[in-house]
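Hi all, long-time lurker, first post. I run a small reading group and we've been trying to get comfortable going from sequence to structure in the token notation. Rather than ask abstract questions, I figured I'd post a concrete chain and ask someone more experienced to write out its structure so we can walk through it together at our next meeting. Sequence below, copied exactly:
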Amino acid sequence: MKRLSVLLLSVILGLFLISGCSDSSSNKNKKTLPPVLSPGDIVSVKLIQTTDVHHRASGAGSSITYSPMDGIDSSGPGGADQTEGGYARLTAKINELRQSAKDAERPSLLVDSGDYTMGTVYDLTIGSSPAAFYFMEFMNYDAITIGNHEFDYGPAGLAMILNNARGDDGQGFTVPIVATNMKTDGVAGTADDDLEALVGAGVIENTLLMTLDNGLKVGIIGLLGPNAQADVPQSAPVTFNHNYEFIQEKVDYLKNDRGAHIVIALSHSGITRPGDSPGGDDYALAQNVTGIDVIASGHEHEITEEIVEVNGTHIICAGYYGRSVAELDLVVVIGTGVTAAELVNHSIDDSVPGDEVMHWIVEMFDAGINEALSPQLGIGINDVIAGAGSPNLGKPAGSRESGIGNLVADSLRYMLGGADGAIGIVASGVIRNGFAFGQQITFADMYSVLPLGMSPDPANQNIPGYPLIRIHLSGAHVRNACQLAAYMIAAEDDVFMAQLANPAHPYHALYPALVNLKSSYYLNMSGVQYMHFDAAGLYQLVPGSVKIYSGMDFKCEFPPADIDEGALYPAVLDIYMFMVMQSEGLQMLLAGLGLPVTPVFADGSPITPANMMAARLDRDPATEGVQEIKEWMAFLQFLTAGADRGGFAGNIIPNANYGEAALASGDTSRVTEVPVP
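-- Answer (accepted) --
Happy to help. Here is the structure in token form:
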């Protein structure tokens, strides 16, 4: 796996000889001039949105069952292909929607609201021709914005990805990228210099104005919201302006100065609970900024079954992983704005026959990835490596103990080889997938569980994934980490939080901190067991309940021992979790809760963002430099270890360790809620 980009390049180069299969309705490069519209004219437009596809070129679900070209609909209950999404199916559905607009003599716009990368084995293509960008260029997207996960590699990494997509002549990727509130530091010699060059070259635009075939002028802004920014501490020195007055100025500029008839915000900010009591950064945006006609939302992975209308703004979200495409038909009265809007969400599953050309392209990407993997790992992306023997291995949902969370945490702890008192810690937010009961787990399936991140070390950027570091925590700070996790559980108890929000509540002082705790930060821990009280006990830890498993008890099966609050315990986590814990926001939050968690080296000296790279695990200490252990590598090693090396018999993940009953009580239960006595 010396340089994945080199091995992929010969396969990928040929793909650029294939032209895209769809037309844009923008009049930018057409010879005939569009009509000039006057106040009172009525026109329409079809907006097609994807978002948070996360490089799922072969869909979301078991990779070996993905069958977009077999002509059989196996999507129903018990069907052989339960995968959703996939570039071939998306291509077919988008082409169908564009054709329907053309038949109705209505222009269409195809947009994406960010997070098109980071999520599958197709991230291995970023060093040559990133598959996501090839797909969007092939489909002739009209505009896209940048999501937080595009910054997983930092600003320099994002610039590298964009330059790889564009190619030497700059023509490999030509879709407009709109990032209105992104702000580089303007200082030479910093990490965002290459990104600044792309802004200066117009590759990344501040705003966009498009004139469609029917004369409709559409202004587009691209935003990344506050919550999304909080999820990507590695974006520094890039910042994002969330000031509503700033965004209002941009909307007014497009409408008043540029003559836009409508403004669409491609916003990687998010809407929450769209079908119940809507909230989130995009909902707040619509409340505070006027003149945005449509917010095409992303980030929160919540589909809008109906349009959420706020302050004259229509909010939609296509969901995530390419499982749905949003089709929004708008009627616009010039001088008035949008007077009618209709939303249809199209499910993308095996009932949608795939596009033959796009499927062939994805197969070429597969061949390139396999060519890179085989010499190093001896496997291909669809080779089976393990089996799911528990029905409790789905993707984590909310702040609570989960089978997959425990399994991943166990795999990190496994890297310490049975060290006494070893702990594994993983945030739920980096666990991006799970396994279905009975699933034959392929390399691609395994990778999709922990696909995120990149090393800050250029020497280790040839292989994607967050590197693992070894820290030490005092027993007292392990206890604090457990209390933090319990508070994250409390933050999802709506009744408890409503009571705590009352200024008259005796513990109201906790509310400002708890309300900012995110479920994506929930700490899944291996090697640690604790109990906490329920709401009546304010979710406080039960005194004396924090215990430590034996270092060789990799699956946390046997009775643990009391923790020594004065001792140092070795722990493994990824650098993303470390950076989040060290971020100013979370440090302020921990201080407000009175829960210091200070990572140190074995000698007791502090580990900081400045020296964290010295704490990396090295998979080959005999070789010069550090050969990083990526998070997904630890997971792969644990799943394939075999029972004789602390793994699983037959490489089948057992229900006895990770099922609901195992998590509910006994020694295998790591987190237990108890009533106040």
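A couple of things your group might point at:
The two ends are 56 Å apart (CA to CA).
Residues 390 and 655 are 4 Å apart (CA to CA).
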